[in-house]
Amino acid sequence: MLINARDLCWFLAGILSAIAGAMVLKPVLARLDIRRKAAALVKPSGLLAALMGAFAIVLFIWLMSRGLPRGAADDNVTAQVNAPTSRGSSSPSAGSMDASLMRLESRLAAQGGTDADWELLAQTYEFMGRAADAQSARSHQLPAGLDGANQGAPDSPPPPAGSAAADSLELAGAVELADTLKSKVPGGLTLFVIAKAVNSPGPPVAVMRTTTSQWPRRFSLDDTSAMVPDRKLSTAGLVTVEARVSRSGVATPQAGDFQSGLTTVNPRERKKSVRLVIDRVIG
Fold it and tell me: Of 161, 111, 105, 167, which is closest to residue 133 (Cα–Cα)?
């Protein structure tokens, strides 16, 4: 347990008060035992006790008038209000998806962005089930109600060639459909391939969205597939990869969707392509 400056001052004030009380009682006790020595002790002891008592009172009044440092109470309240609430599982940093989405929306509203920035916003909306907002984002428009939506701002310059691509990793593979489901999955449905960090709960680190057609369906994930800027495949470490065919086009699992099992891989060590088999129906 840590002791701050205020607690230390209170502790010292208590000690000084105890000393003052003891020095006041000392001549009284001495008078009961040796009356002759009492006269010599009363005067200096009483004076010192009075000084110590006065100091303790002054210190007490100063502490009471000072209270908490200015703004400390407001800071504590603000910290409690802004503290993230748990949503089933604790997320470190996390950047939470809502916070990252707000930063991306604010940047696009103030400065505009590249096609990749707007596509990232659209993918984030899709993952959150906001299909209409995703369509607006692909038209370089922010949802209605966001102040300062900048639809005509010039795009921000692209990053230097090779700066981000040099550090990105690629996770490639194929999605297959089990024979028992081939008659139940028509073409034209939405296919998601999603990679999530094992050691960092939160939004996926990479998402690919395409449509069902011929099987197997090849896929490739890298840092350009990220949903939020601060969660990328190249920095995720161990990830789980899964494929899901959505009837509604929404990235969150729905009853009746077709799904594969989870495959755990390390993109930095993976040499072979990833094989995902969609073989189950979400009940």
Answer: 105
3-state class of 168 per DSSP? coil
Nearest CA among 281, 170, 147 for reference residue 232: 170
Distance CA(178)–CA(176), nearest Å, equals: 7
* DSSP for residue 129: T
Length of the chain: 283
Taking CA atoms, 173 is separated from 76, 190, 193, 234, 246, in Å, by 50, 18, 10, 17, 19
Tokens 């607006």 locate to: 136
Which residue shows structure tokens 């502490």?
Answer: 63
pLDDT in tens, 3-48: 455 666 676 777 777 777 777 776 666 666 555 554 555 455 566 6
Q: Residue 37: phi, psi to the nearest 5?
A: -75, -15
Q: Is the peptide bond before 216 cis (omega within 30 degrees of 0)?
A: yes
Cβ distance 13 to 57 under 8 Å?
A: no
What's the CA angle centered on 230, arms 228 and 234, to 5 degrees?
100
